[in-house]
Amino acid sequence: MAQQPLLPVEEARARILATLHTTPVETVPLSRALGRVLAEEAIARRTQPPADLSAMDGYAVRASDVASVPVRLTVVGNVPAGSFHSGQLNEGEAVRIFTGAALPRGADAIVIQEDTDREGDVVVVKEAAAAGQHVRVCGLDFRTGDAGMPAGRRLAPADIAFAAAMNLATLSVRKRPVIAFFSTGDELVPPGTEPGPNQIVSSNNDGLAALILEAGGEPLDLGIAPDRTGAIRDAAERARDADMLVTLGGASVGEHDLVREALMPLGLDIDFWKIAMRPGKPLMYGSLNDKPMLGLPGNPVSAYVCAVLFLKPAIQRMQGGDSALRTTLARLGRDLPANGSREDYVRAGLDHIHGELPVATPFELQDSSMLSILADAGCLIIRTPGAEALNAGGIVTVLPLRA
To answer: Which residues contact 115 (CB under 8 A, 6 or more apart)?
Structure first.
């Protein structure tokens, strides 16, 4: 294959996202909707509150009767939550009421019980109450037919409670995209096994599966393919029903990188295969029989960083959600040297300080094989190509890695 210029990160991400299609719509119960992406607006099926309700324990009154206090009112009823007072509240009357109960007709204010004294069938009101005081008016939260949540929202626990309050037992969401993946390499063995001479424990599959789940996808782990074209083809064939295929390793140029050699006869069409970034230069993207295919580097840190930058947004796009990277500003905690010609993603700790910008402190060692540093990193400091040296205290753009 002819040499290809290094592609800028933003252009590579844009080219990937432009090729993707949203997954089909399915209906799920609320118990299975957490983390899913809404495919349609969630429309309220009821008004909440359905009537004017008391926000406090106390007495329902007419504000005009308690404008001047103290005043004595006759108690004509008792209304716990879930019940109601059938009569009309007239001048000089009050109804004992509890939080969540509907206001009687004629009442327009609540006097809290701490501002009253009870004397048999009479309540002495000691504090005035204006109209609307401690009243949750009908429709305060939402009304029947209101669009409660927009399509494209990834559902959090509070959203599930909101949907339930809107009287929705199910929601229309995008199907979780199935992301099939496999690693390549004779040197790799699964975790929990005893590596032989010159072998290493594979960390990529489990880490990638976790990232796919976090992004809202469904991981399909196809294991480790030995460095043989037949084995690589067999693994790719097992991804036929997936929404995307991801390979780990074999994306760079070299006599032992067999992914392209193995998959070209199966219809692999490559868009690009080198990115102007560090870590993660040997990243490949294309399609295999019209299925999106992403080739991640085999290096564990490079694979993870590339998955954060390219695979996670892709999964979010396939669900119809927001695929933008959530970067923020931070103050640099340690001097950084000038950057080279590639966009650099520097692993750093991220310390949050109340009322100030967080502090991003780069780790002294940035070797792309060191997963211990990646696990400790709170963010990636994004350094543009050719960025000048920056002293501690300077402002940097960071991509947080943890919620």
So the answer is: 58, 125, 126, 127
Whether residue 111 is found in the same domain as residue 146: no
Parent domain of 107? 53-136
Statement to judge: residues 184 and 283 lie in one domain: yes
Q: Residues 370, 313: one domain?
A: no
Domain count, the chain: 4
Provide, rounded to the nearest whole percent, the portion of the chain with pLDDT above 70: 97
Answer whether residue 2 is part of any domain. no
Same domain assignment for residues 117 and 231: no
184 with 159, same domain?
no
Task: Check residue 255 and give left, alpha or beta (phi > 0: left; psi -120 to 50: alpha).
Answer: alpha
Tell whether 282 and 183 lie within a shared domain: yes
Per residue in 336-378, pLDDT tens?
A: 999 999 999 999 999 998 899 999 999 999 988 899 999 999 9
- H-run or E-run covering 36: none
Same domain for 165 and 206: no
Does residue 1 fall inside a structural domain?
no
Is the separation of the CB atoms in 272 and 15 below 8 Å?
yes
Q: Read off the pLDDT of residues 161-213 as tens digits, 9 standing for 90 and up.
A: 999 999 999 999 999 999 999 999 989 999 999 888 889 999 999 999 999 99
Degrees, nearest 5: CA angle 58-61-67: 110
Take residue 74 and report the two structure tokens written for it. Answer: 């006759």
**DSSP string covering 116-131:** EEEETTEEEE-S---T
Coil/strand/helix, residue 32: helix
Query: Which DSSP symbol is given to 310?
Result: I
Residue 255 has pLDDT above 50, yes or no: no
Domain end point (choices 318, 350, 370): 318
Is the pLDDT at 21 greater than 60, yes or no? yes
Sheet holding 244-248, edge to edge: 218-225, 178-184, 244-248, 291-296, 284-288, 268-272
Check if the beta carbon of residue 368 is closer than 8 Å to that of residue 338. Answer: no
Separation of alpha carbons 99 and 94, rounded Å: 15
Calculate mean pLDDT across residues 385-402: 97
The three-class DSSP label of residue 12 is helix
